[in-house]
Amino acid sequence: MKTESFKAQIIITGKGGKGGAFKIHEGYTPVLDCHTSHIACKFTQFLEKADKRTGKKVANEGENEFKHVETGESCLVLMKPSKDMVCETFKDFPALGRFAIRDMKMTVAVGVVTEVEKAELTGKKKK
């Protein structure tokens, strides 16, 4: 079924300009390579920062929200595909639950899908 939006655990691996840290913020819309699909997906909301090895939540120094993540950091994020896309949770279907985030022909982040919100079926049924 078509994916409306999904939550994903990502790790930022890319390098910024002149060797600096690469930053991803809400509203950023890179191309996501998931199995055979290459579709732009928007970072709609950062949910929590996490330890990149264990996946456990990291305290945000008293802040409930954060504006961006940098190279070497990990977070749980809500993403929305710009076109029709099919993905599954990594736990249920690993091939459709793993992805790479590419920008300017470079891989800037990798991740796994943790939760999927499916779109409702619309249209006519075939006999």
Compact description:
The protein is an all-beta fold and 127 residues long. 0% of the residues lie in helices and 48% in strands.
Polypeptide structure, described:
With 127 residues, the chain is an all-beta fold. It has one domain (3-118): Elongation Factor Tu (Ef-tu), domain 3. The chain contains no helices and 8 strands. The chain has strands at residues 3-12, 23-25, 31-34, 37-50, 68-70, 74-81, 98-103, 106-118. The strands form 2 sheets. It has a 6-stranded antiparallel β-barrel. The chain has a two-stranded antiparallel ribbon with strand order 2-5. The mean pLDDT is 83.
Question: Which terms summarize this structure?
Answer:
127 residues; Elongation Factor Tu (Ef-tu), domain 3; two-stranded antiparallel sheet; 8 strands
